[in-house]
Protein 1
Amino acid sequence: MIDKYTEARLENWARANRENLHQASKCPTQVFCESLRYLYGMPEEEGQACKTPQDVKVVDLKDAEKLNQAYRSELLPNVYKSLLRMYYVNRVNPRSIERRLCLAHKTFSLCQEKAVRALMAIVSENEERKHNCSSSDKI
């Protein structure tokens, strides 16, 4: 079973990938219109309510990048990569994932646990390697 901390890290990673925080997510016309609205003190358009600070979820980019490096690693099998991407980033139904990846019927949770375990093992391995490199530089 996946613990809550790991699940929260994976959701953070997925949110960072979904929201494309490294790229502008708005088209230039939308940015221009919003700047005009702000400049002239106009209210938001209908159906476009302003997000209050409690509605906005903070994304930990450093942790998301650690998971991204592990995800891009060649040590993680492609089936696990596909499963993690489909379930967390694309939010695909587990039954659909089983069908698309040709997994046995009702084995999604088992495969998900294996994929998460493999991903977290790579993350911890990368952190240990980074820690060992930084401690050897001090000598």
Protein 2
Amino acid sequence: MPSHSPNVPSETAAPIRVSGWDWQIRFPTVCPRCLQAAHTPLTVAKTFLRFTNVDGTSSSESGSNRQIPRYPYAASFRIPFCQACASVHAAETQHLAFSSYFKFAWVLLTYAGPGLVALACVQLFGKGALGLLLRGEWLGLALLSGVILFFLSIGLWLVRAGWIASRHCLVLPQTSVTKAVDFTDDLSTGFEPVWREFVFRNARYAHLFAEANRHRIWQTDGPQAQRAAWLGKLLRLVLLGMVLLVAGGCLWAWLRFR
């Protein structure tokens, strides 16, 4: 995925690259806007348009006409702000239009509707599995358990996909307060862990943030990146070996039985 820097003023601190899932990122208990003690968490959310490149990889930045827009994706963090800045944020916050809620419900049900049907099938087959268990029909129970796990996996996946595909409809425009924090979409590729860039308008806060996440600072030439690149090469070799093995088997069968 190509590197991407948020649109921020030139006086901001340099981008800080941090790896980890959203819930693993730590934010200092000082306000990113004014450095006062912060005890009021605010949601800072952004929407990114993800693309599919012609080579099959994903990207969150359009940099070529050889990319196909795939879907909008929302990311958010709960970040502590001081009470004064939180009040300014509340005064500047805009309300969502009714059409946004309608779009959210429509997109969510597009995925979650079939997912709920799959989960209903789980309940239906579950009653049958209970009957097989009580009668001691173990083979039938094993087969039906596999069917239940299949529908359960499909149902949960569709519900999760519906939430991911629809949550961008509920993202509010940023205020002058939340603009103190900026971040990119996930920039990882291949076997790399999730990592993104953070940019803060206050250089002092940026230093505190880097210190709080010092064990998660991502280095593109660090050990983790090198290991991810090695795993990518290993996977390509394994796939190539499988292709050669299948091709060799087909050739042997053709020569043997022609």
Protein 3
Amino acid sequence: MSWLYEHQIIDSEVNGKIDVFRYFGRWQIKVGDAYLTAEYTKRKFKRVISELPPEFKANSILVLGSGGGSCFDPIYQRFSDSEILGIEYDLSMIELMFKLNFTSNPLRPQILHGDVKNILPFLKKRFDLIIVDLFFGRHLAPAVYEGWFFPTLNSHLNGEGLLLMNFFQDKNETGLPCKEFLHEKTIHHVYNTLGLYRKKPKRIVI
């Protein structure tokens, strides 16, 4: 193995060919023309997490579409003692995340392997922060358009919790969660558009 440059190709049943590169000791994961784990994606998550309210605390965090794990170190930098649960469809991505040590925090996230529609509705836990990073290629995964998705997210979010959703280049879809959530702000980071949301207040019936 070379610290300066190395290239591996991993065969994935989900993503086909996964290109794994190391430049000057830093690993990157690429599928097609999209980088799923790279310095850019780490900077993106660091930037958007910095946009969360300074008083906001998250002890339990759910990540849908954890991929190669580029979100985890930025999360731990802000919420150092948090318990993180990730859901990832591609087993090869999970194996790469732990093999290449994309998260340096000793707590290490728990990752569930499978389709989000077969896992999320059956979780018993609620979370302070939910991060949605679900894609099929460069576009949002079909699951986010299904009627069960956002109501189920809502049921797993604590009362003062926040939802952070990456739309990547589907920037016109930031209204999708708004039947269930209040749109707090839109965050732009180079190629990515992300939305920050919170739960709607409960209606009081008199």
